[in-house]
Amino acid sequence: MRTLIVTAFVSLDGVMEGPGGEVGYRNSGWTFKDIEFDPAAYEIKGREQSEASALLLGRTSYEAFAPIWPTMEDFAEYNAMSRYVVSTTLEQDDSRWPATILRSIDDVVELRNTDGGPISVHGSATLGRSLADAGLVDRYHLLVFPLLLGAGKRLFSAADKDTTHLDLVEHEVYGNGIQKQVFDVRR
Length: 187
Hints:
Blueprint: E1 4-11, H1 43-51, E2 54-58, H2 59-65, H3 76-80, E3 82-86, E4 100-102, H4 105-112, E5 119-122, H5 125-133, E6 139-145, E7 166-173, E8 179-185
Parallel strand pairs: 1-5, 1-6, 2-3, 2-5, 3-4
Antiparallel strand pairs: 6-8, 7-8
Protein name: Dihydrofolate reductase family protein
Organism: Rhodococcoides yunnanense
InterPro entries: DHFR-like_dom_sf, RibDG_C, Riboflavin_Biosynth_HTPR
């Protein structure tokens, strides 16, 4: 079984919307506004790229990334790996950044049960919440920013469900206040 990793930039209050910029979101670009850049805080992003064997995205993130990521040299390893999009509405993949369309969480279960390395879920707030609620997330890679954003798309759902226990397996605090937190989901 493959490891499913949700990776996200989040505010202290759990918002992940518009970290690098998103049209219409009041706090768009919050990861770069008022937070001093510290390259050490982003080491995990490079490691994720070299360790992952596939990307799993929701439709909204896929449509935002497809026109941009293929041209970014920093994402060369992501651009070379298999991509999957979970969507009930996407008619076809974007030819600039081809992907396999999965239609349901059951399709994700089938993918997760194949042989191969870790599957990385980037952005994709709605998908991340659905995967967590279905008990499919194995690990979280979080960069927690010292900000309270209030409104916005949240990483974690508000579903009334049993407690999910997490084991902190890696952490670091950087001079700019960002915290790296890596959690394994306890089974």
